[in-house]
Amino acid sequence: MEVKRYSKELEKEWEGFVGSSVNGTFMQERKFLGYHPSDRFSDHSLIFMDDKIILAVLPAAVVQQEDKRILVSHPGASHGGLIIKSSLSTKKCLELVSALVECCAMNGFDYIRLKPVPKVYHRELSGQLDFALRFSGFRLEYTELATVLELKKDEEAFVKLVMSDTAFRNYQKALKSGLSVVEDANINDFWPILEHKLKHNHNAKPAHTFDEIKHLKTLYPDRIKLFAAYEGATPAAGVLAFLLNERVINCFYIAHDDGFQHLRPLNLIFGHMMEWGLKNSFLYLDFGISTEAKGSIVNTGLFRFKEGYGGHGILRECYLYEVNNSK
């Protein structure tokens, strides 16, 4: 198996492979990874080929921690890891992981850290890759927990069926409040609400700058959508969603204006998103993680809030491998 570094002239082949892969999303596309300033990450992405056919790609970067050189899943994406060809056999997965380890040993890496794409994003079963990682000595470094709602098309009154009694009452209240939901609202309306909420609640900033989000929106005009609730022309709340692939709606940013909380605008938005997702053939609504500090802190209130909409836990795992450089 041949392993080569990604270079710009391979962009077309890379993009085509990610689009047809088992577990790729737009976060593994070069178009997405490339929005970051060129000096932010030290890119070390890899392409794995067998008889000149791409079997896998690894969006990755080099991180230096003290005296250790680490190859990590690309820090510019929420998750990634090895992105594989459809129906890649167990034998080939074992060869793939072996080739990765050998490549890293030859290039002086001390560790490999991978954050695989969660299972709900996979287009078909692919547990053979996780098996190959574990069989080859990769260990779970930490586990985070996200909350995901399965969108079931054949269910009548789906919103009422999945929401808790309290959440559904608040949804009904929001429906009667006069609020309206806009499916592709202006991000300019939402960003001040998000910044204020993160600053007030967590003394934090969004993971993206406003300019970065606007740029991403131009790159993915149909796959980054703001679902926002308004009272008249005044924004009350919003959910900035990334349609990472055709299976999953990912709620990337969620925030509301406290002045409108009594109208329950997020209940209205999530109910609307469920119906929109069903209508547009999505399979899951991913509310994101509610753990902090690499899974060592559980935000029970946030879990309760998301589970009130019918969501259940999905693991987000991180693997670590210590490279034997003496090979």
Automatic annotation (TrEMBL):
Domain BioF2-like acetyltransferase: 206-292
Entries under InterPro entries matching the protein: Acyl_CoA_acyltransferase (IPR016181), BioF2-like_GNAT_dom (IPR038740), PG_Glycine_Bridge_Synth (IPR050644)
Entries under SUPFAM superfamilies matching the protein: Acyl-CoA N-acyltransferases (Nat)
Cited Gene3D superfamilies: 3.40.630.30
Name recorded for this polypeptide: GNAT family N-acetyltransferase
Lineage of producing organism: Bacteria, Bacillati, Bacillota, Clostridia, Eubacteriales
